[in-house]
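Chain A, query sequence.
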Amino acid sequence: MRWLFILLVFCCCTVKAQVIGGKIVADSTNTPVAARLFTHSGYQTATDAAGNFSIQVKGAGDTINVLAIGYKLLVFPLRSPLQRYMVLRLKTAPVNLKEVTIKAGRNHQKDSIDRRAEYSKTFNFQPPKLKDAFVAPPSNVPFAFFSIDLLRVVSVLTRNSDPKYKLKKVLLRDEQADYIANRFNRSLVGRETGLKDDSLQTYMDKYYPSINWVKKASDYDIILYIKLKAKEFRKAN
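Chain A, predicted structure.
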């Protein structure tokens, strides 16, 4: 097994990362865009308010993926010579104008369906499993044993660093946060508690509910929760 361990360590070794910077802008207006960036080599970052970013890369051959709400996913391969500063332009995601619905609030269910349709490949991504590394021998070879696909073993050990896996986690987290905000938001909490400004934000941060509880709770449960926690909040303050 010693040779297998040495080979795995060798495969997992990474070359020295390089840092590049740049700016994310909208292609049509040239205005800064808030976005998240992921590299194929496993690094990630986010832009500041002005659209500026700095991220580690493996050099030429690496790829930068840029994700921003309302824009198409940008996949930007890095080539030699490596640019130390670059301006990446995002194209606006197409909007279907065949059907227009005007309502007071957002339709969370439709937003979720649209997001999953747009990033279907990412949501459907399944990281490799260890059992996939064992390759069955050909049926016409007698007394043959299972072989091990070393590249798949490495993929399993490093799957948490896979940019597709990280992107899926980000999308799921955003979807859950959007669902909670649709049912537990400043407007509702402010109306039920009478809190405002900093006090309201402190309350929201302190009693922010979990996604599992919100999914099970009825509207009545959420309002009751808000009022009970408001009493607790006032006693503590």
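The longest strand covers residues 18-26. The CA atoms of residues 187 and 200 lie 10 Å apart.
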